[in-house]
Amino acid sequence: AVVSTQSTGDNLLSQCVVDILGSGLVLVLQCLLGCVQGFNLKNLCWHGFLSPSNVPKEICSLIYCTVCTVNSKLTQRNVKKRTSNQIQLIPNLSQPSELSESICHLIIKHSSLIHSEQRQLWLSLLELSTPLLYSQTTPSYNMKLSSLNIVLLQHCLRRLWVVASESDVSRCSAQNTEFYITLDEMFSPEIPSDIPRPGASYFSSVYTKHELKREKNVLLENLGSGTFFALLDLLIHGEGLRLRDKLSHCECEGLSTEISRHVLNLSLSILARFCESGVQRSCSNLLSHYNHYQHRYHPHSLILNSLADIDRIAADLTSFVEEVRSLDLEFKEVDSVEELESLLISISDLSICEPSIKLFVGQSKTKYYSLILQILREMISYSTELLVVCRNKRDLFSLRKLRSRQRQNFFSLLGSLPIFIRCLTCSRVLVYRAILHVESLASLDFEENKEFLKLLKSSLKCFENMVTIVGQCKWTEIGKFLIGYLKSWNTAICNGVLLP
After folding, report:
1. pLDDT digits (tens, 9 = 90+) for 344-365
2. Phi, psi of 187 (to 5 degrees)
3. Using an 8 Å Cβ cutoff, are 106 and 282 in contact?
4. For the whole model, what pTM was predicted?
């Protein structure tokens, strides 16, 4: 009954769970799910290790009995169902043209990527998915289908990774005494150059830099960039769906038909790549669709989309300024315009190139991208709110419903808008410069990069304060905050905190 972000093993050790289920039942659950010294079935299943022959029927019977017993205990104690997150829709997601059931059967029967033991499970999944191909299905039904689908897909991806990387087949197993490759590592360009031998500690999954070698990702080479991007958006990117994580940790109540259909179509397109040419020709539309898939949740994509939103807001504010100027209002710009104008010119004149989207963003750089994205989102938040306030004040002014002090505040707001719009357009240069700086550094953990981190955090704080200013209608302070923000970036550029 407790909403928790802890692991399954940690939750099973909590006293409230023991009080409800009893120590005996908790011990059985620990043996099955939450302990590496036990079967550890959740991790083995959700990391794509299990085949039907690995699971004795006695274990299946024990799981069934355990689930029934847990359900009975929860019903007796009237435990409320915990709140779950709704899985977001993928923006601008289009589906490939509908596949006939016969073509889907062909793909599953002839794909060399499917292990012989798994083929019947794939056919069962297809049979259960028949309603999904032609109509809308319920969120709970979609969630069950996608859970099975992702487990089977991960088994195929792990098999592909082992074969394509010419790795020891033991990496496709998960013995408790051996280190194994996780899904995130399979999608990373950094692959451990040496794997601990049997008998090494189960927890020896932390490697130093010299133990890693950079090599091209074998999944990318074999699946193509479009399909690889789709998998990253679905499973890996922090701002993406992370569907496997949410399903395996029971963090969603259901899925939309669109997402469940996307998971099935993506899986079929991967399987079809390992079929004979005749089968591939029959599903060419499906393969073409995912060959041209574009990133939605890559940090670069999110940042560029946010900049596009800022450009649209700046255009709307510019149109508003032109409109109110035509009304011959008392339009006086802010007092600090000269000091700010020189800063704007110096930043606008910087030579800048648009950074290309890279496939991978290392863990050491994630926090920097996150800060840049937060800055942009705060900028979008207060800019949108400012535009709404401007339009509302304009309407009240035209209806003569503003008192003298309110009119003066409105004129102060109008006077600050031109500089404010220039600051928005300069944000593109500053953000590109920050991205190039992040990507130019081999490591961001050294002492000299503390100033860069400090710059990003101070910028974020500035824009959080700007949201407060807009909410309190303190228009005369806008110029002061913008000067402080731009001065800090200008100083960073002059002092070499940002790479040229």
Report:
1. 777 777 766 677 767 777 777 8
2. -95, 0
3. yes
4. 0.81
